[in-house]
Amino acid sequence: MELFNTIYKGKKVLITGHTGFKGSWLSLWLTRLGAHVVGYSIDVPTKPSHFKLLNLNITSITGDILDKRKLLQTVETHKPDIIFHMAAQPLVRLSYEEPTRTFETNITGTVNVLESCRKTRTTKAVLIITSDKCYQNKETVRGYQEDDAMGGDDPYSASKGCAELVTHAYRHSFFHPDQFNKTHSTLVATARAGNVIGGGDWAADRLIPDIMKAAAKKEKMSIRNPHAVRPWQHVLEPLSGYLQLGQKLLEKQREFADAWNFGPSEKAFLTAKEVTKSIKKHWHEIDFTTEVNRGSLHEATLLTLDSSKARRKLKWKSIWDTDTTFEQTTNWYKNFYTDGTILSEDNLDQYISDALRTNAPWVK
Ligand SMILES: NC(=O)c1ccc[n+]([C@@H]2O[C@H](COP(=O)([O-])OP(=O)(O)OC[C@H]3O[C@@H](n4cnc5c(N)ncnc54)[C@H](O)[C@@H]3O)[C@@H](O)[C@H]2O)c1
């Protein structure tokens, strides 16, 4: 089987934030693809940790994204072909408590990654991971498109909008696609995805991990903002998009050095209450009440991504419907809490074989 045109085989890949939820899944997938993965993260953010449970054979560096000397040294030493920048303070609620750290990590951290590339000039492709929250949220029904205005009413969202603007400025000023192979040899893109779920997420204040932790303890879970609509996709869906995009950049297709949305189809927009009901089908211990907290911190009620550009130009598409996504995710946690083993490899196998069956362009 050929995945992503075998582009990642033997490639040096730097993942910042590799110990986190998305970073650990990406490390697993890239290791499978034969890449030499180097990870750079400040800590292992949760306990338990998906990253630790995977126990992958990669180079793992402990470092702060704000430590620009160490980051530069890492890029100089390992000379990654491609960087996936995921290190961030990724939680909206925590960003109200720690706005300075959120802005510094998410904005200056992005500057430091791009500066390392500008100074070393050895990295061929950079993918900056931001969020659907980077858009100025007008609470409209229409999905946000890549050229919509950046914004953000809370520190996290604004920091992701800023990370996009920073990347745009670096691409325009130092890594312009028109100057590729003339003044520089680095293609830079950004990727915006929404809420992702999957086994191994233990971050605070996220619906699925909170439900799973409560179910494991046989406790009743209180659902905050039960009517808030969110997109729900398995973590492997945007990761397949990031890997497709990375492939195009490594293949020197400069028209892909741009911003990209990777959201799910409209059918995957569900309220928190609908999600909880749906996952209860797969784990009967799940028990919940709902709580509408009017005085709570502002949280956007509707944010949808229009991913037609990725579908059209990358032929990217979701492989799993919401039911499969919830089933795979719930079974992962149920299995972990029952016998301590993880199903990540099996999930990845299943995802790839479903992608092959449904003619996804990245698997042949
Ligand atoms: N999980 C989601 O639903 C979601 C949705 C949209 C966007 N994102 C974005 O995807 C990326 C990964 O998110 P995640 O859910 O895996 O987060 P996570 O909290 O699980 O992982 C964050 C990672 O960043 C590292 N990190 C944090 N601060 C750092 C610092 N100062 N220096 C170096 N490393 C640091 C942590 O050690 C960890 O490896 C983030 O950029 C996040 O904003 C996530």
Write up what this structure looks like.
The protein has 364 residues and is an alpha/beta fold. The protein has one domain (10-357): 3-Layer(aba) Sandwich (Rossmann fold), CATH 3.40.50. The protein contains twelve helices and 13 strands. The longest helix is centred in the N-terminal third of the chain and has 22 residues, at 99-120. It is globular and about 60 Å long. The termini are close together. The model has no long low-confidence stretch (mean pLDDT 94). The structure holds nicotinamide-adenine-dinucleotide.
List keywords for this structure.
seven-stranded parallel beta sheet, two-stranded parallel sheet, alpha/beta, binds nicotinamide-adenine-dinucleotide, 12 helices, 364 residues, Rossmann fold, globular, 41% helix, 13 strands
Q: What fraction, in percent, of the residue positions are helical?
A: 40-55%
Instruction: Indicate the CATH topology.
Output: Rossmann fold
Question: Class by helix and strand content?
Answer: alpha/beta
- Please give the count of helices: 12
How many DSSP-defined strands?
13
Q: Could you describe the largest sheet, including whether it forms a barrel?
A: 7 strands, parallel
Low-confidence stretches: none
